[in-house]
Amino acid sequence: MLISPPFLPPRQPGESDDAYVRRAMQGDAPGQGAFPVSRRQQWHGGLHLAAPFDDSAQALDVCAIADGVLVHAQAPTPYVSDPDHPLNYTGSWTSDGCLVLKHSTEIGEGDDGAVEFYSIYQHLSGMPDALRDASPGAHVWRKDVIGQAGRIGGQYNRMHFEILADDRNVKRLMGARIADVSTQDGRTDACYGDIHFVLPAGVACCHADQNPQGSLHTPALQNDPSGEPFFVAMRYDQGRCTLTTYRRNGEIVGVCEDPASDVEYRLYDLATKYYPKLPSAGYELLRLGRVLGPDALTPADAPHWRKMALPSGPAWVNLNSASVKKYSDADMPAWLGWRCVDATGGDSRCTDSDTLDLLQNLTASQDAASDDDATQTDSQGPSPQALRLARTVVKCTTEWDDSTYTKRYAWMEQPDPDGLGLSQEDVARRVHHAYFLCFWQKANLGMDSAPWHFEPREFIAHFKKCGWLSASELRQLLPVSAIREKARGVWASEAVSLSPGVERNIAQYRTDLNKALRKFGIANHAFRMAAFFGNALVETRWFTALTEDTTKEPKKDHDGKIHDDNWYVPWQGRGFLQLTRPDNYFKYWAFLGRTTDPSLQKELAAADEEAHKHRDRAPLQDAKHPKLTPDMLLWRNDVATVSIEISQSAGAYWAWSGAAPFADKWPVLQREIQSLEHTRQVYYRCESFGQVAATVNFGHSVTDPSSIAQVNGILARYQAYTNALMVLSEGLPFLDARRVPQDKPDGYTPRREA
Amino acid sequence: MKGLRVGALGVWLLVMAGGYATPPAPATAQINDYVLDACHFRITDPSYHGGGEVDNKSSKHAFIYTANFNPTYDQSFETSMSFLCEKADDTKRISDFSGVLKVEGGWALDNSEPPLPGEDRQLILYHAKNAEGAGVAENDATGDEDTRVRTLSFCLIRRGVALCGGARPIMFVNDPKSSVQDKVVALIDSIEFIDDAPNDGDHHVP
Predict the structure, then answer these.
(1) Confidence label for A731 from pLDDT (cuts 50, 70 and 90)
(2) Which chain B residue's Cα is nearest to A484?
(3) Rounded Cα–Cα distance for residues B198 and B194 (Å)
(4) What was the ipTM of the complex prediction?
(5) I want to staple A126 with a disulfide (CB 3.0 to 4.6 A). Which of A148, A225, A594, B171 is the partner?
């Protein structure tokens, strides 16, 4: 799932996705357009958001949050000053432009990984003609401008924004709500974001200074004396690893950060050190807290020690103990505040005591806060109370269904203290106003009028951590064209097509690719994903070839010597990042726990050196190396043909080649121009990405950045990277010819195949 | 990857090719049965000695076949084929995977995306033992001209399932003598769906 906020202000350098989403979506306050309860303690299924302003004090447009299809469009009624007009009911104008989009995407594999939800954009003052005139079912693409925020009760540049799902899809989006989380692990069809561990009361731990992992001595264990279970969140970010310990009620016990600031970047080394029999499974254990497979941890009870904060002080706990249960953000853990409230039985008022308690606590904490920041969206993020309220998922009758109006609002006609004592005339005006805004019957969403409502800001912030790509999202990563040096100094731009072969490759390899991106920590970081695909797309000739084309005939140079560009055949590139040359294949097989003859490895290394030196493939031919077993020849071929190998080989190479530190850098994009045969082409050069390309193409980063230009197909890689940034991220600045930042690259054409 | 090589329920037969003035030497035909999800089929490999395996370890199961169809060609190369089992009623997927559209009375090239210069798209009709199908043969139209190849895509449809796949390379674009297109098409035509497969009803198309 790829998702964005409905307003897209420029991103600040180094700003996290979470901070960006919260900055882009502001304007609500308790009692004033907040979720899930707003005025007079009535359920409120969405947020009232204020459009941020750009540098020229213009309110930003409203954008689609995800790819989808149009379900309902209602053009806004032109403003009139008549105080009796239903849209002037509150004493000032309320805009009634409205769009409803349906989003079908994936958060994981299998049936339960496929999800559908709706986004509602209400109180728009304008929308593009194309949408106004479009029929239901028309495609809308994420980040497309779909309208302008209008007026709510006289406040300008405001929008009511809502996210809905039906019963079936809430189960898929949230996973099974496990009653006793100490008895089973979380879902495996989806796994993303932070990894969570449920520690039983009295968990065995040790207070050693050093990591017991790999120690010759069994650590002296003692049981935690506090007598309560703990909930530990493990987060990797920018090379660091942090473990935060919570109590069941979400209270933080403490935070423990790994002292090595690059521990995430060294996971490959740690996996080979701690889990030498099958480092691949060990890597997954270190990254995901459990082994989702298909590799099996060897031995199955190999420990996974982590230092964490406990009330008795920092302690090491073996997280691979059977008594420790494993979850991820995909389970929307209850101890972090995620909960479902079914409020379909009553009227529009909230009677759920837990929700009202949270609301009261939030109000009290805000009153106590010295900065009086009602929205609590400062740099520290939302308060724990606000977060828990935002993670309430509510099933309640939509306010946009006029057929349920009486049931929801009859209480208002009652006298104080149960109602508002509205007169018949008040009620009539109110009903008329509501009917102007209601669309549920017209929109025909195909579900009853009591859907589940998510707090939109929290929903978007949460699912930005997912990173699982649907087929459509993966297709969009292919740029529509790319430039190539046809002959020395002659450049051309070529169309990149979605051939039947590309479509089949996407269908065949996508799930394993998503799993590899997850396992190797690429999936939930837009910049890492962009850097990965910026290379993988070029290496595979835009997803057409999973093995390097080595059909070029060797050439003879002027003095008759053979010069073979493909001197490393039959160890040519295979897989998404084109694993090449014997040493990389053997390294990969060792990562998979496959035993090979060390003397053969030495022999092939010498042959590789010889072949490289003379630019001649003869020394590497299989017939010259009888120690190569039939299994090895099959393993080598599998890297180009077996889906899981195609993806996992690329992930392993990414991990050991040290690409991530460069991919994590803020992309500084330099606008460049390449002259083509008949025209000129703008592209964006990026040094940090160029270093990733060097690790992929040369096997290592470079000390002299100018040598990045020697990377094979570097301009096409820059183009693929830029296109991927557009697909995977938002708010990045691209300079135009006048060096003015724009929200898209010069000449950008998105791929629009559904 | 030993675990992958379990799909073949093969038998070896000696067959005599007919129709020659002088009877040719007996060729060894390899007949293998494969179960790929709901697709249960048999392939007759006349003499290519290709390696076929069902990949059940990966998330999306596939049948993979690799062979050197033209060992006498001076620049020997292997053609890799990959087959997926799909639902026959998923017309969009079948069209996306094969490059052709089902039209009244047959098949037509899907030209919704206009052909690129040099692509040389060709409609191929398949007449397998008990299934019909179609696909496209086309050249790479991007990338280094020296390494462009021709590829094949196809879907064979039988009752509720479609066996879709592709082959790459089937020819070096700059050397038509390298073409193995006819041999690959013949191999696909040799496919026979086995409808009375044991547990046939238990297999599902993912």
Answers:
(1) very high
(2) B143
(3) 10
(4) 0.90
(5) A148
